[in-house]
Amino acid sequence: MKKICLIATYITLIGSGLVAQKHEIGIGIGVSNFLGDLGGANDIGTPFLRDVEAKAFRPAGTIFYQYNCKRFVSINVSLSAGELRGDDKWLSAQMPSKFWSRHYRNLNFKSPFVELTLMAHFDLLRYKKIYKSHSYFTPFIGAGVGVFYMNPKAYYNGAWIPLQSLGTEGQGLPGHRTKYSLIQPNFPISIGFKYQYNKHWKFTLECIHHITLTDYIDDVSTSYVDPAELYNNYSPEQASLIYALSRRSIELDPDNTYGAMTAPGQQRGDPKDKDSYFMILFKVSYVFGTKRYDYNCFKK
Question: Which fold has domain 21-149+180-223+272-287?
């Protein structure tokens, strides 16, 4: 009986060790940035990195679990959080600049985000040994699916006002879109660099771009609402607040000299170009087990 117990214990320990070699957990810190209608580079709306505004970078963080299932494939589940920002005042534009209309629009927002993602990572190289060291590295790419929570707010009269419930473009009114959801799907794609320092510790630098199906992360998508519709459906106080938050060019142009640019029905955003965001993260993870799983690294 003692021999049977010892054999069973030995098999269990070996089995748990082999399983453990496939698993790692970690944390990461970095920055996030928003790509959408508000803010952006000093130009008309341009795609992806060409429209990055340095002032929009905000802190972000993540915790994650990774399962190393194949030699070149890993499955990663992560919970991340951060903040997204955009402000038309960041565009230093004057008439007759071609992007002056973005500055004149004068809208701003911030939104926290919390996301849960499932991604597959694909190593581009077998782990390579760094010259005369016991450390290994490989570049990788990744793709996956996820879901995230957002809650856009605008800074107005010294306070941050939540926007989704107001319907600043007439959402929820007859003949208009329904109000958008604060929970949305996303589709992350990434590129990065893994550095296996020793048997247990790994360092990763990763840039993750999140494609979304919504154009309302910044609460801006279609056209300016007619104030008459607001006053016909809301109390005077509520209608006044919604209209003030929907059309803020008047703050820069009290005489309404160029008011035709932000009149009811004029373009406020671009619904054909969905919002997105990206994160740059430095991650540290602990690999369970005494040997690095399925790589010819650190084997005696």
Answer: Porin (2.40.160)
